[in-house]
Write a structure and sequence with these properties.
Blueprint (H helix, E strand, L loop, with lengths): L5 H4 L14 H36 L4 H9 L3 H12 L4 H74 L6 H24 L7 H27 L8
Helix pairs in contact: 2-3, 2-4, 5-6, 5-7, 6-7
Length: 237
């Protein structure tokens, strides 16, 4: 049977006691005296526990880890540390330094993983934004294509109207308006082509010019249609 060391547990601290009314310096001095004593006691206790674990291991070589872990709550790695202290291959201070080093490394690894996770989330957001921008760019290009088709149809209508009104002296002003409207719409389309170099940044400007072109076309077509309806009918000779 292994004998415990009761002298370690019976270490008296009476000589370090100071009254509660003592100065702060007195309490600090007492703490600085007791800390080495605490480390000494802890080291001696770790050595004693290690010897008990060695005895259990000798008695149950195939099952000692399960016994120590289940009945004493000591993990496998800690048990090996305590046995090393008991055998003298390691000191308590060395064991604590190694444990602290492992904790620091573990925290550093967690920080790295956290940084990696954040970077992955940021990369995912960037990819999502790129997809959205590509979709918006495709929509803008589709709008430009549709607008150009509308423009071609409007030009054809305007040319048809101008051809029909070319011999009507009373409709000269309407013809000039149509030509002016065509020029303004052509200018707007040219400006929109330039803005499409940066569609995301110039989206609002492109939309404004589209609205302007539609208003010009609508406003100029109404009087032209009215003029066509009111053309005088030639009498048969």
């Amino acid at each position: 049977m292994l004998q415990t060391t009761p002298d370690v547990l019976k270490t008296s601290t009476a000589e370090f006691k100071v009254p509660s009314s003592a100065s702060v310096d007195a309490h600090v001095d007492a703490i600085n005296i007791l800390i080495p004593k605490l480390r000494q006691i802890a080291g001696e206790l770790e050595e004693e526990i290690g010897r008990h674990i060695l005895a259990i291991k000798a008695a149950e070589p195939d099952n000692w880890e399960a016994i120590v872990q289940a009945r004493c709550g000591i993990s496998r790695s800690r048990a090996y540390e305590l046995m090393a202290i008991a055998e003298g291959t390691k000191t308590s201070q060395q064991t604590r330094r190694e444990t602290n080093a492992r904790k620091i490394k573990h925290r550093a690894n967690q920080a790295v993983r956290s940084g990696t996770d954040k970077k992955a989330a940021t990369d995912a957001q960037i990819i999502e934004l790129r997809v959205v921008h590509k979709r918006e760019l495709a929509n803008a290009r589709a709008q430009i294509t549709e607008l150009e088709e509308v423009r071609e149809r409007q030009i054809a209508r305007f040319e048809s109207e101008i051809a029909r009104l070319s011999d009507a002296r009373t409709l000269g002003s309407e013809r000039d308006q149509l030509r002016k409207a065509l020029g303004e719409i052509a200018e707007l389309l040219a400006e929109m082509r330039g803005l499409m170099a940066h569609p995301e940044r110039n989206r609002a400007a492109v939309a404004t010019k589209i609205d302007r072109a539609e208003k010009i076309a609508t406003s100029v077509l109404k009087p032209a249609k009215g003029a066509i309806v009111n053309l005088p009918v030639k009498q048969a000779a």
